[in-house]
Amino acid sequence: MDLGILWFWIVAFFFVGYFVLDGFDFGVGMSLPFLGKDDTDRRVIINTIGPVWDLNETWVIVAGAALFAAFPEWYATLFSGFYLPLLLILLALIIRGVSFEYRHQRPEASWKKRFDTMIIVGSAIPALLWGVAFANIVQGVPLDADHNYIGGFFALLNPYALLGGLTTLLLFFTHGVIFVSLKTDGELRERARKLAARSGIATILVAATFLAWTVLAHPEKSGVVIGAAAAAVLLILAYVANALGKEGRAFALMAATIAAAVLTLFVALFPAVMPASNDPANSLTIANASSTQYTLEVMSWVAVIALPLILLYQGWTYWVFRKRVSRSHIETAAH
């Protein structure tokens, strides 16, 4: 197999893992003003992701490192052309992580409210901008002959990209709210299930529109049609499972929905890695953006050894922290 093609799909795998795992983290953060009636509720909500949020976030670091090593031309064009939105994502992730650690350091309500706001904003901005960025990559952006992005920041805020951002925002929000229902009990669990039912309707409508637009833009690729159809069916099944109170099944189906949607975007992109909307001759492809054969061979051996260890450790972490978080746990810990 061509190692450039192999690493294209490995990079896709890392981004799928990141969007599935950190996606529900973002959703949990965005759910605070909707589900947190008091400070105990908000502590319960935050504690549902407390043991895993930083582990989930490392997937984007691994994805970025793999992108840098396997496709340096793609990495250079992406991070220079999309510098401002990616910087905003980075800053949002920083303030979000800081807020998780500092929120409980002082007892004043104003202190906690300030950091709660930072968690909400730090979750919503990446959830929106990741969708905007990937929609632009798939749609194509203006590049010069040296593969430099020649558009401005506002050119990235086109209708298709904004729809992509709204899609990821709603997908992650619903994914996170279902996770809250999976990890809590009592009244909070029921409120989360009802909120997921309401947000699920908007998610289905927006995601269906975005996926339909993607299919119409790539009618020659049967894989895009299949992937979009699979994502749509999985999303509807997740909505039904949540309505029936099967939050474990609903969460798994939402994870599968996000995975199918992200893979659909990579199928639409393949074999390009960054199409040029102004001149196809300026496009970056797997062939002209990848590293040398030797580099890809070394990376492949590293992946064979490290990837199973990463997956085992991730699975073990979720197994250890599999139990629900209740208000009684929080209230007991406060004494």
TrEMBL record:
It is found in: Cell membrane. The keyword Cytoplasm does not apply. It is a multi-pass membrane protein. GO terms for molecular function: electron transfer activity; metal ion binding; oxidoreductase activity, acting on diphenols and related substances as donors, oxygen as acceptor. The keyword Magnesium does not apply. It comes from the Bacteria. GO terms for biological process: aerobic electron transport chain. Belongs to the cytochrome ubiquinol oxidase subunit 2 family. This is Cytochrome bd-I ubiquinol oxidase subunit 2 apoprotein.
